[in-house]
Amino acid sequence: MAQSPAMMPGNSASQANRPSLPRLNLQVTAGSPKGQRIAALDFTKGALVLLMVLYHWINYFIGPQVTDYYKYLRFVTPSFIFIAGFMISNVYLSKYVAADPRLSKRLFTRGLKLFAIFLALNLARVLVVPLLGTDSVTQNLFAPKNLFIVFLSGNLPVSGSKLVSFSILVPISYLLMLSGALMILYRLYRYAFHVVCAVLLLGILISAMTGARSYALEFVTIGMLGVLVGFTPIESINKLVRHPYILALAYAGYLIAITIWDVYFPLLVVGTALSLMVIYLLGTRGRESGKIAGEIILLGKYSLFGYISQIAILQILSAGFHRVNLGFAGLVLSFLAAFALTLVSVEIVDRARTRIGSVDSLYRWVFA
Predict the structure, then answer these.
(1) Which residue in 24, 164, 201, 328 has the most C-beta neighbors within 10 A?
(2) Are 173 and 111 spatial neighbours (Cβ–Cβ below 8 Å)?
(3) CA distance 239 to 232
(4) At what angle do helices 39-57 and 265-285 cross, to 10 degrees?
């Protein structure tokens, strides 16, 4: 969702003189400059958007009969939030020194902007979805119970008719606003984020003991864990993912565990971390010049727009395909169309930004 240079924690003095951002290089090495964009991270974000297309396509075209299999894709949503947290320490602290008041303002403003985008998109959903006939918007969002579910507990249904769409934007906006406020404390105490993360983990433990699980709390906590990981030097992360056989063995163990015990929070954290490492490893092993890798990297640069556009595309495809008898061929076609149109939408925006100044300005105002 933002540019992704690496950063070293506690190095505020050197952060003020960052080199200008060079062209992408997919092969990230231990000696990569701090200001360099990490293409493998863009690849990871792009791959997550495509996995989100799969997740939502199942919801729209297959339905609740495969609910048991959603747990194998449960890592997708927290992975987005984890990366959003990673960006806070990895990107924003590479552009600003911690003492710069613009950093707190930037994070808090961006969080408010995402919250406003969430509200605007769901207002549009209320108006458009009934016309498409793909879903029903019959529940009153402003009922106290529904407001609590959407904005506090986050315990939305996995499939079927939903109270809202684009729900991932809510915990990300909370994470950004919380981090903006914490930056004020971080100037004085370098472990401010660690302390708050510990408090959030304690809150999850208490909620688990009382049987009141809150996905909103869990997602914000996972985002805060992403912030902490973002303080880690990128070369350490690269070394960690250079053991594919260990990763494969660990991932197999994770799959067995969620098959037996379902995706409880500890396993959700493990699955998020392992999934991101596997995808990141694929990004470091790929070639930016390749057509497929290049498209995924571009999608990663526009991950927020790609996330929003794929839901709109699936709504439209669902409206069209549900008017005919799909069959197996129709399902395959709808799946491929969802992938292709998501990539095309990003290509259109990218080209429009380079050619039309007003489009670029509008994009920056909304998404930057």
Answers:
(1) 164
(2) yes
(3) 12
(4) 120
> Cα separations (Å) of 152 from 73, 149, 199?
23, 6, 17
Domains of the chain, by residue range, sit at 12-367
Measured at the alpha carbon of residue 283, what is the angle toward residues 5 and 48, in degrees to the nearest 5? Answer: 85
Instruction: Report CA-CA distances (Å) from 150 to 75, 123, 142.
Output: 20, 14, 10
DSSP 64: G
Q: pLDDT (tens digit, 9 = 90+) per residue, 249-306?
A: 999 999 999 999 989 999 999 999 999 999 999 998 866 557 889 999 999 999 999 9
Query: CA 281 to CA 175: how far, in whole Å?
Result: 26
Rounded to 5°, the CA angle 239-299-174 comes to 80
Sign of the dihedral through C-alpha 312, 88, 293, 79: negative
Half-sphere exposure of 53 (CA within 13 A, CB side): 27
Sign of CA dihedral 237, 241, 242, 246: positive
Contact between 5 and 28 under an 8 Å Cβ cutoff? The reply is no
Using an 8 Å Cβ cutoff, are 163 and 139 in contact? yes
The 8-class DSSP code of residue 176 comes to H
pLDDT of residue 289: 59
57, two tokens:
């396509």
Residue found by looking up tokens 């952060």 in the block? 15
CB burial class (10 A; 0-12, 13-18, 19+) of residue 291? Answer: exposed
Q: Is 279 within 8 Å of 44 (Cβ atoms)?
A: yes
Tell me which residue has tokens 């069959």: 327
Question: Which residue from 287, 275, 340, 232 is spatially nearest to 45, judged by alpha carbons?
Answer: 275
Query: pTM of the prediction?
Result: 0.84
